[in-house]
Specification:
heterodimer, A: alpha+beta, five-stranded antiparallel beta sheet, B: alpha/beta, six-stranded mixed beta sheet, two-stranded parallel sheet, 8 strands, globular
């Protein structure tokens, strides 16, 4: 994420219970910045999925490991980095959950939903950090 | 019609709750929480719903989403596990009253083609 004046940072232990706090804080700020109900819903889903991935798959729910959230809300976009302390993964290796027998699998839909609801989703640092952007509609 | 209100047993947290009703041979499970997100919530739901399926000879289940306004992909995983359990017993699983924004999630993941989805509970029990 580029250096931004209104960049905010939250660091949490790898606890599912803390995900709700982070989402609540960000959603509240999005509403104050006049993001639409649809945009807030989509961003909520995307950050929820990214945080679950970071806590569960990245850090293995090890509360000694942290998840760092850097975000910036401006008048025209929401931008976030969510980084874990895991060993990373290859997003390209994640099978498409919409295809064939994958549709009957109980997991593997988080990344698809993040991509569906955000305008930009990019994994960096060997897959340990996801960078996402959602542009506000005029 | 039999009406039960069940808090999730064995869990320190009382949320989420489900209501269980019986109508036209169907067991209707209504989610009463507006948001279903946390892993503990989802595990608690699973521990509440699976015994209903296991106890029925041929389960006929309707999952009513009328109160739900937000869910994570982990809930979709739970629905897949429920459906497998129901179909193992040659049962019938229907979903109903899904809020439009959540129905969009089903469409994105193509689960709208997998599940038998009805607009209203009245339609689902027919």
């Amino acid at each position: 994420m580029q250096q931004q004046i209104n960049l905010k940072t939250i660091v949490i232990p790898s606890s599912h219970g803390r995900i709700c706090d982070v989402c609540g804080r960000i959603l509240s700020e999005l509403k104050c910045n006049n993001f639409s109900e649809d945009e807030v819903f989509g961003i909520h889903l995307a950050i929820e999925e990214a945080l679950i991935n970071a806590v569960k798959h990245g850090n293995g729910a090890d509360e000694a490991k942290q998840v760092k959230i850097d975000y910036c809300i401006s008048k025209d976009k929401f931008e976030v980095n969510i980084a874990d302390e895991g060993s990373g993964f290859e997003p390209e290796a994640v099978p498409d959950p919409r295809v064939g027998e994958n549709v009957f699998k109980a997991s593997g839909r988080g990344l698809l939903l993040m991509k569906a609801y955000m305008d930009q989703v990019e994994y960096v640092a060997r897959g340990t950090c996801v960078h996402m952007i959602k542009y506000k509609k005029a | 019609m039999i009406f039960l209100h069940i808090g999730v047993y064995g869990m320190a947290r009382l949320q989420p709750r489900i209501n269980i009703e019986n109508e036209n041979d169907f067991t209707i499970v209504s989610f009463t929480s507006e948001k279903i997100l946390e892993e503990t919530q989802i595990q608690a739901l699973e521990h509440s719903i699976m015994p209903i399926i296991e106890q029925a000879q041929t389960p006929k289940i309707i999952l009513d989403f009328a109160n739900v306004r937000f869910l994570s992909s982990a809930v979709l995983g739970l629905l897949i596990r429920i459906s497998k359990k129901v179909y193992q017993k040659n049962g019938n699983l229907r979903l109903c009253s899904i809020y439009p924004k959540i129905f969009e999630v089903f469409k994105i993941t193509r689960l709208d083609k997998v599940f038998d989805i009805y607009q209203t509970r009245e339609d689902a029990v027919k």
